[in-house]
Amino acid sequence: MSKQLRMTLVLGVAIAISLFISACGGNPSTTPASGNTPSSGGSTPSAGLGTPGEYTCVQGSATASGSTALAPLVQAVAKDYQAKCSGASITVNLGGSKTGLSQVESGVVQIGNSDVFASKTQSDLVDHQVAVVIFALGINSKVTGVTNLTSDKIKGIYSGSIKNWNQVGGPNLPIVVISRPASSGTRATFQQYILGGPETISGPSNLTTDSTGTVIQNIKSTDGAIGYVALGPAKKASLNLVSIDGNAPTPELVKNNTYKFWNIEHMYTKGKPTDLAQALIDYMASAQGKQEAASLNFVPLTDMSPDAVQAHQPKS
């Protein structure tokens, strides 16, 4: 065989092998499908992340902690999300708004749920506003004849100057104040928008943990008790509620700030959220998320009047 012929055969074999390798490496069946393809928390984020209302499946785990008022909504939406995205694991802990803010800042959790704005010193936290929560004053069933309390009467009760229900049109029954700890965002909201200052009374049933369920249980089981809780759990427990200044705790009266005992709910992250945290926050604004919010007596931020939202912004 001539040298020229041998070179021609070698070149032909090389070209054939090259074409074979190229064909095997470009098999399109191995390319992930777009849409709900799971992605890990450390991967390049999907284009859908950071878009409120969008659903993107992200594998991995995330933990949120904080507000007991916001917890039922986050738990419900997280459950819906995990049902659609089986590779995601989301844990929602309680502890109160200040605990949530502290834990997310320290990196213990990925999301800090809060009824209140972070402080100015927590400038590394990113605010994701997700809904409006309605709070209400609940009273024990033995407190008959009281369906409304003025702001002045409420201030009197929480300062200790009004000690008996007969001073506000009720029965001859001592008032027992069910308080919440300083870490509670519900307490902070109550002090800011109803009392106009701090509580100065702590009754014999003063709570040391911030649990909406425990507050409701204490109000229902303690003769003459009064306390404040999120509207959703209060209605679910059939707690007796009172109007404030003649206004009932309803979404209609909250939307224009006629009823003032409400606040904006926040899901804070330390800097840019992880992929799963962002995906959950996005899903909070989805149609299913809004449906969960309505069923739990939250109000979508988009339903609020601009003046009402402005009234609950931090004072500069």
How much of the sequence is in beta strands?
15-25%
Put simply, the count of helices is: 11
SSE string, helices as H and strands as E: HEHEHEEEEHEHHEHEHEHHEH
Q: How many strand segments?
A: 11
Task: Round the mean pLDDT to the nearest integer and report it.
Answer: 86
Termini separation (Å)?
92 Å
Shape: elongated
- Largest sheet composition: 11 strands, mixed
At CATH's second level, what is the architecture of the largest domain? 3-Layer(aba) Sandwich
CATH topology group of the largest domain? D-Maltodextrin-Binding Protein, domain 2
Tally of individual domains: 2
- The SS-based structural class is alpha/beta
Radius of gyration: 28 Å
Which ranges are low-confidence, i.e. pLDDT below 50, for 5 or more consecutive residues? 1-45
Q: According to CATH, what is the class of the largest domain?
A: Alpha Beta
Task: Provide structural commentary.
By secondary structure, the chain is α/β, with parallel strands linked by helices. The chain has 2 domains: 60-131 and 266-311, 3-Layer(aba) Sandwich (D-Maltodextrin-Binding Protein, domain 2), CATH 3.40.190; 134-255, Periplasmic binding protein-like II (D-Maltodextrin-Binding Protein, domain 2, 3-Layer(aba) Sandwich). Helix content is 36%, strand content 18%. It contains 11 helices and 11 strands. It has helices at residues 3-25, 71-84, 97-106, 151-159, 185-195, 212-221, 231-236, 251-255, 275-284, 287-295, 306-311, and strands at residues 60-66, 88-95, 111-114, 125-126, 129-139, 148-149, 176-177, 225-230, 240-244, 262-270, 298-299. Helix 2 (71-84) links the parallel strand 1 (60-66) and strand 2. Helix 2 (71-84) packs antiparallel against helix 10. The protein is elongated.
